[in-house]
Amino acid sequence: MEKIPVHLKNRQSLVIVGECFNNLKRYFNDRNTFIITDRNLDNIYKERFPDCPVYIIGPGEKSKDLAVVGDISRWLLDQGTDRKSFIVGIGGGVVCDIAGFVAATYMRGVKFGFVATSLLAMVDAAIGGKNGVNLDGYKNIIGTFTQPEFVICDVDLLLSLPEKEFVNGMAEVIKHALIKDRSQFKRLEEFSTPVMARERNEMEYMVGHSARIKATIVEMDELEHGERRKLNLGHTWGHAVEKVTGLSHGESVAIGLAFSAGLSVKKGLMTEAERRRVLELLKTYELPVMSPAGPAEVLDALIKDKKREGDSIHFVLMKGIGDVVVEPINLEELKNFAINEQ
Ligand code: NAD
Ligand code: ZN
């Protein structure tokens, strides 16, 4: 078991990798605790839930809605929840976002913790204290920065995660290795078979390393003024790909990572051999590296999205493998690269 403390200005949050889900009840007083989960997790794991009232949301992004926040808050009120109560979100990124948002706002905030059940939640969504919901199709437009008391990552729960969702999370794992951990990148190259089989030892190692990278970056910049921008690696281009193609988030980020690697070579920050390694690793984990939509269309979506930033946008580029730099890129230069040189 690995405990990763996340030291922040006002409090400490703890990410616990390798803890068993069955020990969840050790982390709170169950008489005044309320669980939020989604229907899939409830179906698979309800026998192992602590004996607390449970609110079940529909699975998927559509639950990240203010109406659902209202429904859960009404339920909490009916249950007699007060400011001393505790909320536990058991689920993937959607449950963590919504449970964290409800906890941060109900009666101006009650304490909360997460059991992260998807790979993406374990290494990304559950860590860092951002909790958001969507509005009118705009993602995470309403939200808070409030840290969970704990994030439990029982990697055995990954065994029931659908393959597509696992691969989705691998895009963020690869992103973290590219940002800060050359040796994990190498390990992902060498150990793809046990990783894809989700073997416990390999999962604990991988989730531990990846979660630590996110935690370290969040500690340096909790409120996203600088360092935390590095986490956008692959996401500027990736979000535009996601919008245009409807590919999953992880697939789109993988295409964004490949794009960023290409631009980094063009800028003289990365060698062609390193770029090839990035593409190979993404393919090894069954992630795409080429957008099915053309660059002009993706660029159009990107510019629409970033129009407030002016003539240039902040882009995260790779300085070899295991280091990144955030640079302003002129939109004309980006266009030239995307359309003529990619
Ligand atoms: P998700 O929560 O929708 O989970 C994906 C699917 O897998 C769901 O159907 C879920 O029911 C199922 N599932 C989860 N764990 C399972 C398990 N152990 N066994 C079987 N099924 C399981 O999606 P996600 O990919 O985990 O998270 C995506 C969300 O996270 C997005 O809304 C995104 O905006 C958010 N996010 C937030 C942050 C943040 O900092 N707050 C960061 C990254 C992503
Ligand atoms: Zn992402």
Report a brief summary of the structure.
The protein has 13 helices and eleven strands. The protein has 342 residues and is of the alpha/beta class.
Q: Would you kindly provide a written description of the structure presented here, covering whatever features stand out?
A:
It is a single chain. By secondary structure, the chain is an alpha/beta fold. The protein folds into 2 domains: 2-160, 3-Layer(aba) Sandwich (Rossmann fold), CATH 3.40.50; 163-341, Dehydroquinate synthase-like, alpha domain (Up-down Bundle). It has helices at residues 39-45, 66-78, 93-105, 119-125, 163-180, 182-190, 192-196, 200-220, 235-245, 249-266, 272-284, 295-305, 331-341; strands at residues 2-7, 12-17, 33-38, 54-57, 86-91, 111-116, 130-135, 138-145, 150-153, 312-318, 324-330. The chain starts with a strand and ends with a helix. The model has no long low-confidence stretch (mean pLDDT 95). Bound molecules: nicotinamide-adenine-dinucleotide (NAD) and zinc ion (ZN). Nicotinamide-adenine-dinucleotide binds at residues 38, 40-41, 44, 59-61, 64, 91-95, 97, 117-118, 120-121, 124-125, 128, 130-131, 139-140, 157, 160-161, 165, 168. Nicotinamide-adenine-dinucleotide binds next to helix 1, helix 3, helix 4, strand 7 and strand 8.
